[in-house]
Amino acid sequence: MDALDLARWQFGITTIYHFLFVPLTIGLSVVVASLQTAWHRTGRAEYLRATKFFGKLFLINFAMGVVTGIVQEFQFGMNWSTYSTFVGDVFGAPLALEALLAFFLESTFIGLWIFGWDRLPRRVHLATIWAAAIGSNLSAFFILAANAWMRHPVGFAVDPETGRAYLTDIVAVLTNPQAIATYLHVVSASFVVAGLFVVAVSAYKLLHRERAVLTHPAGSAGFRPPVHPDEPGMFRRTLRAGLVTTALAGVVVTLSGDHQAKLMAEYSPMKLASAEAIWDTESAAGFSLFAIGSHEIGEVGVGRNIIDVEVPYVLSVLATGSPAGEVEGINDLQRRFTEQFGPGDYTPNIPVLYWSFRLMMGLGLAGVGVGVAGLWLTRRGALPQQRWMYRVAIAALPAALAANIFGWVLTEIGRQPWTVVGQLLTAASVSPGVSLAEVALSLSVFTLLYGALAVVEVRLLLRYVAAGPGHVMPYPGEGEPEPESIPAFVY
Amino acid sequence: MDLPTVWFVAIAVLWTGYFVLEGFDFGVGTLLPVLGRGRDRDADRRVVINAIGPVWDGNEVWLITAIGAMFAAFPAWYAATLSGFYLPVLLIIVALIGRGVAFEYRGKVDDPRWRARWDAAIIAGSAVPAFVWGVVFANIVRGVELGADGVVRSGLLDLLTPYALVGGLATLALFVLHGAVFLALKTDGPVRRRARGAARAVAPGAAVALFAFLAWTQDDHGSGWTAVVAAVAVAALLAGAGLVVARREGWAFVATAVAVAATTVVLFGALFPAVLPSLLDPAFDLTVANAASAPYTLGLLSWIGAAFLPLVVLYQSWSYWVFRRRVTRAHVS
Q1: How far apart are CA B235 and CA B257, in angstroms?
Q2: By three-state DSSP, how is residue B187 classified?
């Protein structure tokens, strides 16, 4: 165990954790903005109540995304100073653009939205949530362009004197085919998560809609207001909206994922071969469903599968578009890279990649499947009567979040042993001046802090879901109109 | 001016914006227990927090942009600074995480113990970075044990020199004063009164600390023009304290903002043309010239920065205009 290992663990833990909140921010910002637009167009209090209810949940999540993002920008310099010095000229530019063009927009307008309900004209106030949503969605583009560059570096050269990379073509970096495919895939996956978040919350509220008995007195910690008769109607609508979001985003996530598989075959053959446990180059390769392989450490280039259950031709179709297409194998690639880059182990962690790929696809498609099936089951205003269906809909949310995580594990582990493919090895990227003790300390602090915050965040979300829309915007009494002025959120 | 120098100035501008804006956020958070006390303590604490509620997140993005600009324009500076100041930077990040979550979560559960815990996160999360940034910048100006390989070998104890500790005290005191003046300007009722009192109480100490820090900086690293700016900083601080006592709160805030800005300018002025000096050998200094990115990147960033930073300033100013009214207990009840 050395500082490199711990720095990698820290990067993995903090990035995955950050990415639990980011997809919800990306997708929910647009969902909330759309609900508010619906209110603006129709004037129906139901949409306003839904905006405020989901807006509150969005904000609870948003705060976590913001603060965990700070770590990301700092830790490149803290733990990966050799990497940062090497790539800053290229990689730093999209990060600086992200802050300047996207984060300022997002943070300033989210403040205006939270506190501006009673200060801004309604149309302007509506524009603030859209501006924040645009900021969130734009920020994803810059950081993903930076990440795509690490996997498929373009638009740069290396200065022979300083040994540092420098940018030669920003357009090439921003239109990197890997960047565009990744952006579509990650953002649509984020909308799947956000759609399923709305589905899960709505399904939970519909599942418990008959609960009308007060079990705790008002003002006490366990107080739950009774379900207002209008509430099920609102959640029936938001359930539909969530399902539509999930299904539409599901189409994009599937198509962009398919496109990415082809790019992977072209630009990251080792990642594809490892994710598929293809040891020797094959034509008409099958898609492996289950495999157990053997790969002696230190004896690279001679691995094989002991058990492998395959669906014939499918991998060749996915990777090349043709059933007879050739897919390069790990052993052959290892030989090729050794000739190209010198002796070394150029294979990533194969079992992790193999299972991450399958879990990403399986869980992701299951989530999308819930969206599509749910649309069918709720057609023409129907609501399923079977309680287990609601429970499945709720379970689809963690499944989709897990799919996102496995997608990132696939991306990041699949790039190994490189930080910048063909240019810089991960082992050569760490900060030489940072000690094992220092990284151990920061890793422990972040892990403990993040663990504690996760508990707090989930509890808070559950609490606000349970309290329901009447808590953030009380229903008027029998026969009374909805109030004219809309109070702002305050801290 | 060549492009690397332009970007040194641009980064100084971003840090100046950050310290002027988040400086008062830090002061406000540090003063939370002092200004929100007594019988209506929670109402007053909410007044204090809501005074910066709409703007603190946007203010913090100045830091994210400053760091991003250092990464893009001076990769070696970014890398050596963040890895070289590993533990102080870790402390700042943890503080900012706790504080950011605390603002959002504090009022979400109606329970005194819950609020007390988040209040602690706000107070520590504001005071710690206010102090540590001063320590870090004092060490950047003074220099660190930077080798020919660009690696910083100073340990945590090497960073805690008397000069750096005075720097930390100076930024902490300056930000507390700046925050007190901000609250005097942005709130009404008991909080406004107490904020004025806090400003008066902290001003003499802040003046002494800032004077000591800037005089020391000037003596070891300054040039002719930084002496003038340093004098402006101390004078503006004293003027700000006087104006807030005289209830000219708007002008007082302008004055403390000038004090923060001038202090930042002195630090960057004293640093130039190095970006991270080496205590081992001047030949190992990271400088504007040897740490900079290539002209293509710097030129590109210049165009984008010139186009968009004014826009950012414009919409952030508009946000301050929207929330120009004083926050009172009536707002938060």
Answers
A1: 12
A2: strand
Check residue B152 and report its DSSP letter.
B
In angstroms, the Cα distances linking A282 to A306, A318, A329, A332, A490 are: 17, 14, 7, 10, 61
CA-based nearest residue in chain B for residue A167? B297
Contact across the interface for B152 and A433, Cβ inside 8 Å: yes
- Predicted local confidence at residue A213, as pLDDT: 44
Q: Which residue has the higher pLDDT, B280 or A301?
A: B280
Task: Evaluate whether A167 touches A436 at the Cβ level (below 8 Å).
Answer: no
CB of B277 closer than 8 Å to CB of B285? yes
Nearest neighbour of B322 by CB, restricted to A97, A116, A434: A116
Answer yes or no: is B280 within a domain. Answer: yes
Q: Looking at this protein, which amino acid is placed at residue A225?
A: P
**Strands, E, within B41-169: which ranges?**
none
- Report chain B residues whose CB lies below 8 A from the CB of A66: 57, 100
Helix axes B190-221, B41-52, angle to 10 degrees: 50
- A199 contacts: CB under 8 Å, gap ≥ 6: A239, A242, A243, A246, A370, A371, A374, A393, A396, A397
CA A207-A208-A210 angle, to 5 degrees, is: 110
- What does pLDDT average to over chain B? 95
Residue B84 with chain A: CB contacts under 8 Å: 433
β-strand partners of A327: A282
Is position B54 within any domain? yes
**What is the per-residue pLDDT across B147-172, written as a single tens digit (0 to 9) for each?**
998 899 988 889 999 999 999 999 99
A460 and B102 in contact (C-beta within 8 Å)?
no
| Yes or no, beta carbons of A70 and B93 under 8 Å apart | yes
Interchain contact, B109 vs A460, CB within 8 Å: yes
pLDDT higher than threshold 70 for residue A305 = yes
Asked if B76 is an interface residue toward chain A (Cβ–Cβ < 8 A), one would say yes
Q: pTM of the entire structure?
A: 0.93
CATH of the domain at B104: 1.20.1630
By C-alpha distance, which of A357, A359, A335, A360 is closest to A346? A335
Dihedral, A151, A152, A154, A158 alpha carbons, nearest 10: 60
The domain segmentation of chain A, as residue ranges, is 3-266+409-472
Q: For residue A222, what pLDDT is reported?
A: 57
- Given an 8 Å threshold on Cβ–Cβ distance, is B61 in contact with A79? no
Q: Does A84 touch chain B (CB under 8 A)?
A: yes
Closest-CA residue to B102 (of B32, B163, B190, B207): B32
CA atoms within 13 A on the CB side of A171: 0
Question: Given A92, A119, A159, which is nearest B68 (Cβ)?
Answer: A92
Q: Is residue B152 in some structural domain?
A: yes
Q: Which has more pLDDT, A253 or A232?
A: A253
In a mutational test of the B interface, the residue from A100, A124, A164 whose CB has the highest number of chain B CBs within 10 Å is A100
Q: How many domains does chain B have?
A: 1
The kind and range of the H/E element at B276 are: strand B274-276
Q: What's residue A210's pLDDT?
A: 64
Domain presence at residue B243: yes
In chain A, residues with a C-beta closer than 8 Å to the C-beta of B297 are 89-90, 92-93, 166-167
The token pair at A57 is 């949940």
Expressed as residue numbers, the domain containing B189 is 3-295+302-310
Structural contact between residues A115 and A464, judged by C-beta atoms closer than 8 angstroms:
no
